Amino acid sequence: MSNDPTLDKLRKKIQEAKKAAHPKPFQQGKIQKIGGKYFNVGIELVSGVLMGVGCGLLIDWAFGTSPWGLIFLFILGSAAGMLNVYRTLTQPESKDNNKKTDV
């Protein structure tokens, strides 16, 4: 290739323009990852309990077994929510934080 200084300057400007046009994706810090993880834990616990209560009320309404369906499925939903929390908190964190996400 030629060693024309104006051509080299133009190449540098083009590379800088490409970098500016395609900014790097948002990099989450450790605090943001932990916050997101614990938010997810709370959502999983609450959703398990709510699903148990909802299904219990539905079964009680459909079969007239009030309050036994609610009690049983509340306990089952709570256990499922706690199991999800346990699985989430004991899951090892990925060490591959340097994945290349640029296209």
Task: Describe it.
- 72% of the residues lie in helices and 0% in strands.
- It contains 3 helices and no strands.
- It has a domain at 49-91.
- The protein has helices at 5-21, 30-63, 68-90.
- The longest helix has 34 residues, at 30-63.
- It is mainly α and 103 residues long.
- Helix 2 runs antiparallel to helix 3 (68-90).
Q: Write down the overall geometry.
A: rod-shaped
Radius of gyration: 27 Å
Overall average residue pLDDT = 83
Approximate strand percentage: under 5%
Number of strands: 0
Helical region count? 3
Give helix % range. Answer: over 70%
Which class of secondary structure composition applies to the elements?
mainly alpha
Biggest sheet character = none
Poorly predicted tracts of residues: none
End-to-end separation = 27 Å
Instruction: Give the SSE string.
Output: HHH
Helix and strand layout, with pairings?
Layout: H1 5-21, H2 30-63, H3 68-90
Helix pairs in contact: 2-3
Features:
103 residues, mainly alpha
Describe the structure in brief.
Helices cover 72% and strands 0% of the residues.
